[in-house]
């Protein structure tokens, strides 16, 4: 049992890396998809199609390996900087399951947990859904008669320099992969997960945060790439991985339609920049590297795909900074909060009603409601 905290991380006694989870073999695919889509009204055909994406890669999502790497990077960074804060990992939809991890944490004596979600932006899917799953897991612990830890969540880090700068370098590296004669004319296609337009409109404390945050990041990355290359490239925020029923409007344009449009408009090349994904997910491996790459090949449009941030040491360092910053704020101090772009640092605690659940209110942890 631990009953002490490191003074610099006080009041926190653990960090929880909270992720989506993904299958690790063919037999996991269907149960994983059932976990993800329970009660969501996803059409059967869409599920069969998404299952095929996983089977194409041996039923293995890249997300778990990426999280293991991030976990190792965080532990290494904390140790190298004298931070005595244990890091645990739990997922919403696959093993290691969040509830099992929290049970292990309370058995280890952890009582005040700070959460890092592998989703950088505001939205129901990217924020409140994580908080609802935290509340469900905490309720299970209470039902089992276990101590219930207090759980907080780190602010949205989409605009943290430790998240943005690796993306700038990734774009510069992707540009180098393009043939030299089309490099300067290459468009930047910043891409993120599409969500229902209604969810986009209600995202964040005042609405519209999902798109506004992505535009802020795209602008900051495009500007840094312009400074580094001396070339002012055209850019646009586009979407991918649309799901749901066809009659429900989701954010558009889709990356494939955008590539078609670029081609018709005479663009010589494009770099796909998956700013919406913290690491390589199936959406990156299939929807971009397989589907969109095939579309580009069919169009004869040279494309490159920028790497995701993943376990970049600068991101691990950013997490450490945000942990220290939040701990200081919890102790009543006023820490400096790093942020690039125009929006400024995000709130520490989601206000009541932020990123509402489209199916109606449910208990959510780590926020004002
Ligand atoms: C905004 C957003 C993120 C980014 C933020 C974050 O990272 O959290 C994200 C991440 C992810 N989404 C993932 C997988 C899936 N998402 C689905 C379905 C949905 N996603 C949505 C949104 C998002 N999703 C939405 C509005 C739906 C419709 C159903 C619903 O309202 O819930 C479905 C069902 C099949 C389908 O319809 O596609 C699957 C299998 C994986 C794992 C990938 C891997 O294995 O590598 C990851 C990281
Ligand atoms: Fe998703």
From TrEMBL:
It is an enzyme of class 4 (lyase). Its EC number is 4.99.1.9. It comes from the Bacteria. Fe(2+) binds at residues 193, 283. Keywords: Cytoplasm, Heme biosynthesis, Iron, Lyase, Metal-binding, Porphyrin biosynthesis. SUPFAM superfamilies: Chelatase. Gene3D superfamilies: 3.40.50.1400. It catalyses: Fe-coproporphyrin III + 2 H(+) = coproporphyrin III + Fe(2+). Transmembrane segments: none annotated. Pathway: Porphyrin-containing compound metabolism; protoheme biosynthesis. InterPro entries: Ferrochelatase, Ferrochelatase_C, Ferrochelatase_N. It holds the Pfam family Ferrochelatase. Fe-coproporphyrin III binds at residues 61, 130. It is found in: Cytoplasm. Involved in coproporphyrin-dependent heme b biosynthesis. Catalyzes the insertion of ferrous iron into coproporphyrin III to form Fe-coproporphyrin III. Belongs to the ferrochelatase family. NCBIfam families: PRK00035.2-1. This is Coproporphyrin III ferrochelatase. It comes from Streptomyces thermolineatus.
């Amino acid at each position: 049992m631990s009953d002490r905290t490191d003074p610099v991380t006080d009041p926190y006694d653990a960090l929880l890396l909270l992720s989506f989870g993904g299958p690790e073999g063919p037999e996991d695919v269907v149960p994983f998809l059932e976990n993800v889509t329970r009660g969501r009204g996803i059409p059967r055909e869409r599920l069969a199609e998404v299952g095929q994406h996983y089977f194409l890669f041996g039923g293995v999502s890249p997300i778990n390996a990426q999280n293991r790497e991030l976990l190792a990077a965080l532990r290494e960074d904390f140790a190298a900087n004298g931070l005595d804060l244990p890091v645990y990992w739990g997922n919403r939809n696959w093993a290691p399951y969040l509830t099992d991890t929290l049970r292990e944490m309370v058995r280890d004596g952890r009582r005040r947990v700070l959460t890092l979600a592998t989703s950088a932006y505001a939205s129901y899917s990217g924020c409140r859904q994580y908080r609802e799953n935290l509340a469900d897991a905490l309720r299970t612990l209470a039902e089992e008669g276990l101590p219930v830890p207090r759980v907080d969540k780190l602010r949205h880090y989409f605009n943290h320099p430790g998240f943005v700068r690796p993306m700038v370098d990734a774009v510069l590296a992707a540009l180098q992969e393009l043939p030299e004669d089309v490099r300067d004319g290459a468009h930047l296609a910043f891409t993120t997960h599409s969500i229902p337009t209604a969810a986009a409109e209600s995202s964040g404390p005042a609405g519209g945060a999902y798109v506004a945050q992505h535009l802020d990041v795209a602008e900051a990355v495009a500007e840094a790439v312009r400074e580094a290359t001396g070339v002012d490239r055209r850019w646009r925020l586009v979407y991918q991985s649309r799901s749901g029923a066809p009659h429900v409007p989701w954010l558009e344009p889709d990356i494939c339609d955008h590539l078609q449009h670029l081609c018709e408009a005479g663009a010589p090349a494009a770099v796909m920049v998956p700013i919406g994904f913290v690491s390589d997910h199936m959406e990156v491996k299939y929807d971009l590297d397989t589907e969109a790459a095939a579309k580009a090949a069919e169009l004869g449009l040279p494309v490159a795909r920028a790497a995701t941030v993943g376990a970049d040491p600068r991101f691990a360092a950013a997490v450490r900074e945000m942990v220290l910053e939040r701990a200081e704020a919890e102790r009543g101090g006023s820490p400096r909060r790093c942020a690039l772009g125009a929006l400024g640092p995000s709130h520490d605690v989601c206000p009541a009603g932020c990123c509402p659940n489209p199916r109606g209110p449910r208990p959510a942890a780590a926020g004002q409601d």
